[in-house]
Model the fold of this input.
Amino acid sequence: MIQQTDWRANGVRVIPAGEFDSNTPQTPGMTRAAAINHARVGAEKLWAGTVHIHAAAKTGAHHHGDLESVIYVVKGRARMRWGDALEFVAEAGPGDFIYVPPFVPHQEINASSDETLECVLVRSGGEAVVVNLDIAAVETPEGVAWVDSIHKAP
Done:
């Protein structure tokens, strides 16, 4: 006998914008809100939500354990610092994606002094993992351009 799935209860879920859950691990300087996670919809392999960083704000240094993270910039200008002393820096704007590998110490900075940075965030696990770090940042980080076989060095 073939067992049938109850698609009404176990199918597509729509999470309305006003129903995101901010009861998630936080990092100083930003507000995260979960839309998709294990507790809300049963997701086992990803976490998705939003992050807002106020104008001119810098988050605390942190990493997300063994999870991969993807950040999509919706509005504003993101400045990312990363490394053992946050010694590397790159910026992203609306429409850009940012990839953060597992265990990479990083800091998000709102590069705008008058506009909130709004992003969509997706992680490779069903639960939020945030490890806040006590890292003194270097004064002058090294800019890192995206260089690969298609994108040549400036």
Q: What stands out?
A: Residues 39-127 form a domain with the Jelly Rolls fold (CATH 2.60.120.10). The chain has a mean pLDDT of 89. Residues 7-10 form the longest helix (4 residues).
